Amino acid sequence: MRAIANSIDWFNERIGRTVAWLALLIVLVQFLIVIGRYVFGIGSIWLQELITYMFGFIFMLGAAYTLKHDGHVRVDIFYREAPARTKAIINLVGSLVFLIPICLLILWIAWPYVMQSWAVWEGSTEASGIPARYLQKTAILAFAVLMALQGLSMAFRSILALRGDQRELDTLSGGSD
Description:
Elements: H1 2-38, H2 45-68, H3 84-119, H4 133-162, H5 166-172
Helix pairs in contact: 1-2, 1-4, 2-4, 3-4, 3-5, 4-5
Membrane topology: Multi-pass membrane protein
Function: Part of the tripartite ATP-independent periplasmic (TRAP) transport system.
Domain Tripartite ATP-independent periplasmic transporters DctQ component: 26-159
C-alpha cells in the first residue's frame, strides 16, 4: 500500500513541479504581449489564448499536487486540532465518499465532451487563435484522473495510519511530509 501511495505521490509531485514553470512562462508571454502592443503596435490573439491555456493547465494539472501538500482550502474547525487517528478517518472518508466519486463523475460526464472535441480537432473560435482547444479540454480528464489517484494515495495512507503506522501518524500530527 505504501509503495503505491509513494508512486502516486511521486507522479503528482513531478507533474506539479513541472506545470509550476508555466507560471513563469505566463509572466514572460504576458510581458511580450504588452511590449508588442504598446511598443510595436502589434497584437497576438494566439499569445493571449496561450496564457489562458497555460493558466488552465496550471490549475487543472497542479490540483493533485496541491492536494498532496494539503494546500486546498479546508474548513478545518475540527481537523486542525484533531488527533492523528481522527484526521486519518476524515481523510479516508473524504477520499472514498467524496473525492474519488466526484472525480469518477467528472470523468463520466467530461469523456464525451472531450472526445467530441478530439473528433473534430476543435480549435479556437478566433481565426488566428490556437487550433488545439481539444488539448485544453483534455486537461479536464487529466485533472479527474490525477485527483482520483491522489485521493487513493490519501486513502492508503489513512489506512496505514489507522493500522498504527507511526510514520503516517507522525505526518498527520504535523511531522515531516
